[in-house]
Amino acid sequence: MSTGGHYGAIGFAAWLALMAMAGTAAAAQCGNSAAGFEAWKKEFAGEASARGTGSRAISALMAASYSTATISADRGQKSFRLSLDQFMAKRGGSVIASRGKALKRSNAALFASIEQRYGVPPGPLLAIWGMETGFGNVKGNQRLVSAVATLAYDCRRSDFFTEQLYAALTLIDHGRLSPDERSSMHGEIGQTQFMPKNVLNYGQGNLDSAAGALTSTANFLKAHGWQAGAGYQPGEANFGAIEAWNAASVYQRAIAIIGHQIDGG
């Protein structure tokens, strides 16, 4: 979609209305530097408005800034290229397993309730929780809309993050996220680091609380084929649900190993 980049005297709000009436369908053009971000943001806002996004979310989008920190983090995910042993050592797999066993005992009622409802045992949930945020000890300091908008604009994975940005705007419109919501580098939020689309589809309660995050994670796994009582090691029925959680093979195998250790394997 191209508007020529000129809005004249009609003002941005009026331009948004014109874009909505036109029912624009073409996608805003991605870019590989900060130079085109502001123009892209205006085009994307017009497209979002045409799709029914409300003024609260549009305002949050227009306040977004290009995040060089997010781009740097996106280009520097080197740990996923480590061997399994190296990855486990770098992420502190043995510490996560030990702490996970203690948390399993101290939160027995919560984990029993989750397993009864979703069929997911404590091990993989605790492994994910520990791996993602050190059991809730890591807090994101990025502005979520800026992080996700930057990656939606960036050409590397524009399609994936465009979906995440629309989800974030929907959550803001519905009052489930603040326009100033803080996140990790790629827009992950909560104690198990849900992306906005997963918050929209699987979020249960407050993801900044242990109960909300763990329940939401179990809901995600069940929705991706988790079968109560089946195994979750590579080649077993539930490993596919773990694969859906994160695309990195080394991460998937680490979750299966740590979860097995926590569950008494």
From TrEMBL:
InterPro entries: Lysozyme-like_dom_sf, MltB-like, SLT_2. This is Membrane-bound lytic murein transglycosylase B. Residues 37-232 form the Transglycosylase SLT domain. Keywords: Signal. Residues 1-27 form the signal peptide. It comes from the Bacteria. The keyword Signal applies.
